[in-house]
Write a structure and sequence with these properties.
The chain has about 100 residues and is mostly beta strands. It has one domain. It is built from one helix and five strands; from the N terminus they run βββββα. It has one helix spanning about 85-95, and strands spanning about 10-15, 20-35, 40-50, 55-65, 75. It has a five-stranded antiparallel beta sheet with strand order 1-2-3-4-5.
Length: about 100
């Protein structure tokens, strides 16, 4: 198996809300779990803090990029993740152990 880069997600982000406004957030905490059948996929549960103080959880994934600019780098997944049940349980348990949940 090839060597994968260290997993270091960006801890700041932004999005465009439903009204077209730019909303910035920080990732306060996160837990990650390697997908059991794809070592090039990291499942994550993140605790986000928005500029207005609101906090929410976000579930997602990163994959190793395949497009020219991102080859070999961890890239945020753009679709809803599929996750084996055992990986989901591991991810939730990690979140509980860190006090995130």
């Amino acid at each position: 198996m090839k060597n994968l880069p260290d997993f270091k997600p960006n801890l700041k982000g932004s999005l465009i809300d439903i009204d077209g406004n730019l909303v910035k957030f920080e990732i306060e905490k996160y837990v990650e779990q390697t997908h059991s059948s794809n070592k090039e996929k990291k499942l994550v549960l993140q605790k986000l803090k928005f500029e207005n103080g609101k906090k929410e959880l976000r579930f997602g994934y990163y994959v190793i990029g395949r497009k020219p600019k991102m080859i070999g780098k961890w890239v945020w997944g753009q679709y809803s993740p599929f996750i084996p049940q055992k990986d989901f349980h591991k991810l939730i348990e990690k979140a509980r152990k860190t006090g995130m949940l």
